[in-house]
Design goal:
Largest sheet: 5 strands, antiparallel
Helix content: 25-40%
Strand order of the largest sheet: 7-6-5-4-8
Length: 310
């Protein structure tokens, strides 16, 4: 009985996924062929016909057959009914293709518009290094790591207790307790030269308050912008009443600032260069200061400031 229920659930999920695929192609490409289903999902032509008929029943006003083109096309009154298309999802698939993370046939994309992305400078990261880090997180282990710190001339061996991964927009970090400094820090995975032995560790990740506490950064246009420029930036960032709120873990909020240039002095940087500013800096700094104060009260804390990527 349980096997039958599981099979039924899996079948419903598969059908729903194929219906969403039909709608995705109709929304973005404006047309759809039965062969799109058979090739993408490796199903028979009769099954593809059943899926198309099912979609036509659910959304009869969305799709029609064009005899001259010999394909199904989206109607002028097309409205998504089984999915919620987003620009972010579509563009993320384009980026995955450009970055060679996925092949086009592995995405849901049919027709591709001409496009290009700014070349990314990829940091070298060994797969075994990443595997060791994720295993340590999963099994609550400490790793002995040969690490090239930005602040040291030569690499050193140190014990780290990783508990999470973080991405600052350019680099992947591991968030870890550093037994040498006796605090939680960010360690750039590309700076791991090698990983030695591992051992069980009793450090509690829930005590990393800078990771578990979130802060809201309220961002607005540069105050010296002209009205037209201001309106453009407000639309670009999807601001409401000149403000967009970004929620970030406290330890990652520094990277948000750096990525958007919020860490620069707005009175010294022209608005064309620094288009947005942090409106609630005092509030953000208060949260950071309180967490740093808690740090100082903790056992054997050696640092009284937040340390970004080592």
């Amino acid at each position: 009985m349980a096997a039958a229920i599981a099979e039924s659930t899996e079948m419903r999920w598969s059908v729903e996924q194929r219906l969403e695929f039909i709608e995705f192609r109709l929304f973005w490409d404006g047309q759809f062929n039965r062969s799109d289903l058979t090739e993408k999902f490796d199903i028979s032509a009769p099954q593809a016909s059943m899926d198309l008929a099912r979609y036509q029943t659910i959304a009869p006003d969305n799709i029609r057959y064009d005899g001259s083109l010999k394909t199904y096309v989206a109607t002028k009154s097309f409205t998504p009914v089984v999915s919620t298309p987003t620009a972010r999802y579509y563009l993320s698939q384009l980026r995955s293709v450009a970055d060679e993370v996925l092949k086009q046939e592995e995405t849901w994309l049919g027709w591709l518009p001409p496009f290009e992305i700014v070349p990314l400078v990829h940091r070298h990261l060994g797969v075994e290094i990443l595997r060791s880090a994720t295993e340590a997180i999963r099994k609550s282990l400490s790793l002995r790591v040969h690490y090239q710190s930005f602040s040291h001339a030569r690499p050193t061996w140190r014990w780290l207790r990783p508990h999470a991964l973080g991405f600052d927009g350019f680099r992947w970090h591991v968030r870890a307790w550093c037994h040498e400094h006796e605090d939680f820090r960010d360690f750039v995975l590309a700076r791991f030269l090698s990983v030695g032995e591992s051992k069980p560790d009793s450090v509690d990740p829930s005590t990393d308050r800078e990771w578990h506490t979130k802060v809201t950064l309220r961002i607005g246009p540069h105050p010296k912008m002209k009205a037209a420029q201001r309106h453009a930036i407000e639309r670009d960032f999807g601001m409401t009443d000149g403000v967009v709120s970004v929620v970030s873990r406290v330890c990652l909020s520094y990277y948000v600032e750096r990525q958007l240039g919020l860490d620069l002095a707005s009175n010294l940087v022209p608005p064309e260069r620094q288009q947005v500013v942090l409106l609630n800096r005092a509030e953000v700094e208060k949260v950071r200061k309180e967490l740093r104060s808690d740090h100082e009260k903790g056992p054997a804390r050696k640092k009284d400031r937040y340390v970004r990527a080592e």
